């Protein structure tokens, strides 16, 4: 009897991911104020850990609409610069427009796969940052080694990822409901996803394998606070391409039923002060 081993198709995954971000770019940008409130403190802490200072040249990988890009650009000042890269040209257009609107002339954007950083000049950046982006790279080691190559000796790699599913109910609740309804198998070996680097020690080991040293890690609580379960549902429906990717095998009625179940499950996170979705982040910095 022949056994067929199902393997993860990274090429197809990456193309689908790009399409999803192209489609959700405007929504992600529109939710920017929420992203800044939710992830702002963690971003500031990460930049502190990485020692981002005036005059530094920063590489922002999987920059998205660039909320953290602008924060970094203000830190490095006019004598420094930030190169924001992403797979989606549409989402980078919003980052570039926001930089212009903010009067920040030290930001450049470039469409670039996070696993294809070898096109950049080696040893040309002081700090590389990546905020909840690396979790979706099919080949995380290739990405990290590319970041290592791009850094000057003594430069720092700084990233934020989600920790474990049980500590991130705002995301794991919809993932588990959709996985059950769509009859999806557990993630295949090597398959990226929101919690792929979140277990204790996993991110640090990934850094070590890529050649980083003096690795420092902080785990922080960053609850997602919005007015209601319905508002959180809207945020994730409009902005989280990973969920739409998982729903792609269901018809419209089945998708609607899944979203309704997710909203109902979200109500357990509602209280007197609105919705507070559990979120825990891992912040890690390593030195070249």
Task: Draw up the topology in text.
Blueprint: H1 10-30, H2 32-49, E1 57-60, H3 67-76, E2 81-86, H4 89-101, E3 107-111, E4 125-131, H5 140-150, E5 151-162, H6 169-181, H7 202-209, E6 213-221, E7 224-226, H8 229-239, H9 241-247, H10 252-266, E8 270-271, E9 274-277, E10 280-287
Parallel strand pairs: 1-2, 1-4, 2-3, 4-5
Antiparallel strand pairs: 5-10, 6-10, 7-9, 8-9
Quick recap:
The protein has 288 residues and is an alpha/beta fold. The protein has helices spanning 10-30, 32-49, 67-76, 89-101, 140-150, 169-181, 202-209, 229-239, 241-247, 252-266, and strands at 57-60, 81-86, 107-111, 125-131, 151-162, 213-221, 224-226, 270-271, 274-277, 280-287.
Describe this protein with a few key phrases.
Rossmann fold, seven-stranded mixed sheet, disordered N terminus, three-stranded antiparallel sheet, alpha/beta, 288 residues, 10 helices
The computed structural class is alpha/beta
What is the CATH superfamily classification?
Answer: Vaccinia Virus protein VP39
Unreliable stretches = 1-5
**CATH architecture classification name:** 3-Layer(aba) Sandwich
Rg, alpha carbons: 19 Å
CATH class: Alpha Beta
Kindly identify the CATH topology: Rossmann fold
SSE order: HHEHEHEEHEHHEEHHHEEE
Q: Number of helical segments?
A: 10
Q: Please outline the major beta sheet.
A: 7 strands, mixed
**Proportion of residues in β-strands:** 15-25%
Overall morphology: globular
| Record field, number of beta strands | 10
The spatial strand order of the largest sheet comes to: 3-2-1-4-5-10-6
């Amino acid at each position: 009897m022949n056994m067929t081993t199902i393997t993860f198709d990274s090429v197809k995954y990456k193309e689908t991911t790009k399409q999803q971000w192209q489609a959700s770019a405007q929504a992600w940008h529109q939710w920017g104020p929420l992203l800044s409130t939710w992830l702002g403190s963690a971003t500031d802490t990460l930049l502190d850990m990485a020692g981002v200072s005036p005059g530094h040249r920063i590489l922002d990988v999987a920059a998205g609409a660039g909320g953290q890009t602008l924060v970094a650009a203000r830190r490095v000042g006019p004598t420094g610069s930030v190169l924001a890269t992403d797979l989606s040209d549409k989402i980078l257009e919003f980052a570039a427009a926001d930089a212009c609107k903010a009067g920040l002339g030290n930001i450049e954007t470039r469409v670039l796969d996070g696993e294809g950083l070898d096109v950049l000049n080696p040893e040309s950046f002081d700090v590389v940052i990546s905020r909840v982006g690396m979790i979706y790279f099919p080949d995380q080691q290739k990405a990290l080694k590319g970041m290592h190559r791009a850094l000057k000796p003594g430069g720092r790699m700084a990233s934020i990822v989600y920790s474990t599913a049980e500590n991130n109910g705002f995301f794991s609740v919809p993932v588990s409901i959709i996985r059950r309804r769509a009859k999806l198998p557990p993630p295949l070996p090597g398959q990226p996803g929101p919690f792929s680097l979140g277990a204790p020690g996993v991110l640090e080991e990934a850094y070590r394998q890529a050649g980083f040293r003096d690795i420092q890690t902080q785990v922080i609580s960053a609850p997602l606070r919005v007015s209601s379960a319905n508002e959180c549902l809207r945020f994730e429906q409009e902005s989280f391409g990973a969920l739409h990717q998982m729903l792609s095998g269901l018809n419209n009625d089945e998708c609607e039923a899944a979203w309704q179940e997710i909203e109902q499950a979200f109500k357990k996170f509602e209280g007197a002060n609105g919705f507070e979705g559990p979120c825990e982040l891992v912040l890690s910095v390593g030195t070249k």
